[in-house]
Task: structure prediction
Amino acid sequence: MLQLKDISMTFNEGTPDEKIALQHTNLELERGEFVTIIGSNGAGKSTLMNVISGNLIPDVGDVFINEKQVVHLPEYQRSAYIGRVFQDPMAGTAPSMTIEENLALAYSRNKKRTLRLGVNKKRKTLFKEYLETLHLGLEDRLNAKVGFLSGGERQALSLLMATFTNPNILLLDEHTAALDPSRAALITKLTKEVVGKSKLTTLMVTHNMQQALDLGTRLIMMDKGQIIFDVSGEEKQKLTIEDLLTEFQRIRGQKFESDRAVLG
Amino acid sequence: MFSFIAIFGAVESGVIYAIMALGVYLSFRVLDFPDLTVDGSFVTGAAVAGISIMHGVSPVLATLLAAVAGFIAGCVTGVLHTKGKINALLSGILMMIALYSINLRIMGRPTLSLLNETTIFKQLRDFWSGTGLDTFFNGMLAAIGMERFPATWAIVLVMMVVTLAIKFITDYYLKTEIGLALRATGDNQRMIRSFSANTDNLIIVGIGYSNALVAFSGALIAQHGGFADVGMGIGMIIIGLASVIIGEALFGTKTIARATIAVIGGAVIYRIVVTIALRVDFLDTGDMKLITAVLVIAALVAPKMMQTHREKKRRQRKRAELERIKVGEV
Result:
């Protein structure tokens, strides 16, 4: 479904601020795989996401979606295949537009936008059905402006908008990190439901090791622009935080730096 | 006492300027793009319509050509901003000064007189006078005791229909799939790009549409006033903004349909206020820009001050209530 081949990316090359974000990274995702990515700050997780989404073009390397080379497709073309939820709850929705208008925007993702009305009766019913799956009562507030929703509600809506057109790939970029614990738990639960139901090929970055262990079928650890650890299947199910920390220490010969990752 | 005739004239031109204000609303509010092209494209519209009419093109076609010219000018601004990565304000200003020379080229001289030409309004009045509607409306005025009558009702009534038609088309457009994407571009560009919309193209088309309306309005104003002048666009952006801001402050912005009607209302009210202000003895036509500036400042500041005042009153009331309860307990 998704293939990254030998991706390298350096920021500010040749200046004192030079930073190697990705070094010869290879990654392959099967259809329906749910991969969680952990790693300390600056490990290259976000760069990896941006390379996949088309927000960044890597210095070298190829990106294939469905066996189609997409590395030179701009973000807006690639996003026909990719659903994305950002860390910032404000980032995934248009605040001055209503809930139904936002859903209509998402609904047109993989279709050509025309001069037909974005919201019609048929779509309204459809949007209501989708909103009901969130159990937040948003189905009764179709005409409310999204700017008036709480952070948790907006993030739930973002998740719905990113997924209900069944994209080939779903990217979740620390999408629960900016929420309070109870809302984060809700979004995590919704993520589990929606990914499970639609068998979406998913890549989730998280700082929370427990979340990385609880969710998904495969776990990847990144450090200094490389994938240093990759487990899936039963092996992953048995993994504990303790194991992850020892593993990191064994591979890198140093302690995992981020307290946030352990405590978060 | 302000004469009915003067107010009538203000409404008449206000309805025509309202089309320009709708254009400014599209760029400033919907796309969140402070587009200063307006000062130039308004004149471009006047110049294209004027020169076409003088060369024997039918006035209706000439006015439509003006809108096309405005569309192209707006698209160029959009391209400068999106493809050239020039700051939005600067791309508008660049286009504005470039258009000054282009407008001079189109006209061939600084001013075109259309007084002896067949304009769209002359045609309209000729057609209208056959209908006898003026006699009807003036009869109504006479019945309520008016002594002086406007020259024609044709312009104000037909322009109201045209302006409202443009409003409804715009409202509809902003609700289509493309229109929604356009609004999202002004609201959250990063988000709409992640839903596979080409924001560059949307901005280019949006600014093009906005300037088409501005140029259309300019073409009509030139035919209404009987001249096109290379300087007639100076400060037009502020007049457009004034209309948008006054309208929003008075009529609200709850929905798109509400906001666009507010903009039209704002444009008419702006004209009326300016007309009244110019009747004050010590003010003359040269003070118009100052009046406009003061109006915009008032429309921007007054709602906020009223809000603060209301909040203060509310807090005082709460405090007083609490005091009373305390006294009652003791």
About this structure: Chain B has two domains: 4-279, 288-330. Strands of chain B lie at 111-113, 227-229.
